[in-house]
Amino acid sequence: SDSATALVLIDGEPTEIRSSIYGTHAVEAGEIQAALAEGGESASKKESAIRNAFDGMFYQLDRLCIARQHDLLTKDDISPATIYYSRLMTTTHRFVLEYGRRNGYSRAASFVEDLAALWSGPATK
Questions:
Q1: Percent of the chain beyond pLDDT 70?
Q2: Exposure class string for 85-96: b at 16+ Cβ within 10 A, else e
């Protein structure tokens, strides 16, 4: 899924990204920040595939945020992996949250910050 691909990219692991719209591309860790940078109107197909993966991740995070707001989600429902990735996005990968905010996912970006802050403890995958 796009969400899973985005998380692999956040982990810094080289991966292959597949998109029915943008094709298949090998992606190295250093390419992610450039793909998510502001002003990507002329993005390459690879950059567009990366952005598409992060858009999918933010969409899923937004759904979790809404469930939490309606008390349909408790702390115990949040996986340690979600906390782990939230912490990465609020520390070494803030550019991911900046991308989300620029592209209509402010609520999801704030939710990630809340997860990282509220459910502290050992960061584990």
A1: 93
A2: bbbbbbeebebb
